[in-house]
Amino acid sequence: MNEFVFLYRGGQAGRSPEQAQQVMQKWMAWFKELAEKGHVKDRGQPLEQAGKLVNGKRKTVTDGPFAEAKDVVGGYTLILAKDLDEAADLSKGCPILDFDGQVEVRPVMKLNM
Amino acid sequence: MELSEHLFRHEAGRMVATLTRIFGVHNLSLAEDVVQEAFCRAIEIWKFRGVPENPSAWLMTTAKNRALDVLRRERTARTFAPELTRQLESEWTLAPTIEEQFGPGAVKDDELRMMFSCCSPRLSEEAQVALILHILCGFSVDEIASAFVSSHAAIEKRITRSKRVLSGSKKLFDISGAEDLARRLPAVQRALYLLFNEGYHGASPEKAVRVELCQEALRLTDMLLKNPLGATPSTHALAALMSLNAARLPARLDVSGNLTALAEQDRSQFDQTLAEQGLRLLEQAATGPDVSDYHVEAAIAWVHTSAQRTEDTDWATIISLYDKLMEIRPSPIVALNRAIAIAQREGPKRGLDEIHAIQDSERLTNYPFYHAALGELEIGSGHLEDARDHFVVALKLARNSMERSFFEHRISACNEHKTYRETPNL
User: Fold this and answer.
1) N or C terminus: which one in chain A shows less Cβ crowding within 10 Å?
2) Closest chain A residue to B136 measured between Cα atoms?
3) Per-window interface: A 77-96 vs B, CB < 8 A
4) B interface test, pick of A5, A12, A15, A18 with most B CB neighbours within 10 Å
């Protein structure tokens, strides 16, 4: 098994409480399924929308948010999969996709030379 | 940890009610923004860490912390609830005040206070119902529009206008004054009654939606019963009427969500728990000298619910109850229901006479079930062609696919009967 990172972007929309609850339940179901099949190494963490950006040699610090809401990474998960294709396939069940969001699937670089 | 059904909706109502109490009614939209933020935060965190042990408490605490942020940040720019101004000004009293305002007792009152505030005489009855659904039950504009089979634009206009009226009022309704509360109580009962009817007789073809509206009306009426001033005999009668009718709802809507004619209802599907609860409430309602229209309607519902089979229904009692209802709250709809009961007891011909004698019957001409009732009684009288014509009119007025298919079935039943009857003459 190889390690991959799922980075979640966007997928935020003004929703009614009922829809919000449904979204929540979809996420729970999705993670549960992935975990039962042994694909979840670490469920990960959510990230705050606001932050700071430190730039270049001069180390200038600017406030976030840095981009449009849809481009901000909202959280990450560590996934175990056979290969990149399987990892990408697993991401297709992510509820964020129903709300115009994005999952970026990136292999964690291996240490073997 | 699983989320209980509609948890977010109910929490939305509680949070908005409490935040509005603290921020002041003029800051209603600020309260709604804070609630929205609390939900967004919950989703973001729960996704990764799982749903907490007590999701309601988690949401309330998040709302409380957000409220503190807002109060600190906007203290100079905004005014908040006038009766709390002093406590909110000083950092010493701010946190303890907020802590107290979010206590379980205070929160319970907040929902009731909001319910009474939504039933302002400055709002029409339909605006009150929409506002209650929106604020206390967490229904979005789209969800209300779909439940009422109305357009998004129409409901949005109604909600926006109602919110403007509500947030333009000086303060929230004061539920501690017995006299004021008693004066506003009938409007609140009426709004809850209409909310229930929207589910029970409503236009939405979705069974789940209809059941939900009935459940929400019951939940809010229960809240009213928990307040000593709200728990009057008529409120008990209202709760009884809702429980007894809700007990019959599963049989009224068959598996495909179709309306089922009274005679064809499967009584084994009646919800016995609700029926028993309804009877208990009805007994509790019978404690004073006053007989409200809710008492009478609850009694009618009880007679229907308690009959083992449709043919066992005590129509004589139902007719006398409708007579009583015509005295207390006369309306063409009540008269129509009375006529149908008379037809059950004395035959379709008598029923038709009664329907034709209804005053203001022109107010019923857009009501599909008026024409359907005429159709049923004409079938009973053997006038299949007349019956068919009535169902054709009903079909044109049908408000959704469920009603349409119900009337289509009645039309084809008329056609089949006709063929059957005419065959021997060929």
Assistant:
1) C
2) A17
3) 77
4) A18
Residues of chain A with C-beta less than 8 angstroms from the C-beta of B39: 15, 17, 20
Answer whether B138 sits within 8 Å of A17, measured CB to CB: yes
Instruction: Note down pLDDT in tens along chain B; length 426 residues.
Output: 678 889 999 999 999 999 999 999 999 999 999 999 999 999 999 999 999 999 999 999 999 999 999 999 988 788 888 888 888 888 888 888 898 888 877 887 999 999 999 999 999 999 999 999 999 999 999 999 988 888 999 999 999 999 999 999 889 999 999 999 999 999 999 999 999 998 888 777 777 888 899 999 999 999 999 999 999 999 999 999 999 999 988 887 765 556 666 667 778 888 999 999 999 999 999 988 889 999 999 999 999 998 888 888 999 999 999 999 999 999 999 999 999 999 999 999 999 999 999 988 888 898 888 999 999 999 989 999 999 999 999 999 998 888 898 899 999 989 887 655 444 444
Instruction: Name every residue in B having a CB less than 8 A away from some CB of A.
Output: 3, 6-9, 11-12, 36, 39-40, 42-51, 138-140, 142-143
Which of B11, B29, B48 should we substitute to test contact with A (largest number of A Cβ atoms within 10 Å)?
A: B48
B69 CA to centre of own chain: 36
Q: Which regions of chain A does DSSP assign to beta strands (E)?
A: 2-9, 40-46, 52-55, 60-63, 73-81, 102-107
Contact yes or no for B238/B214 (Cβ under 8 A): no
Cα distances (Å, whole numbers) of residue B186 to B60, B116, B215? 31, 10, 20
- Note the ipTM here: 0.88
Q: Is A3 exposed, middle or buried (0-12, 13-18, 19+ CB in 10 A)?
A: middle
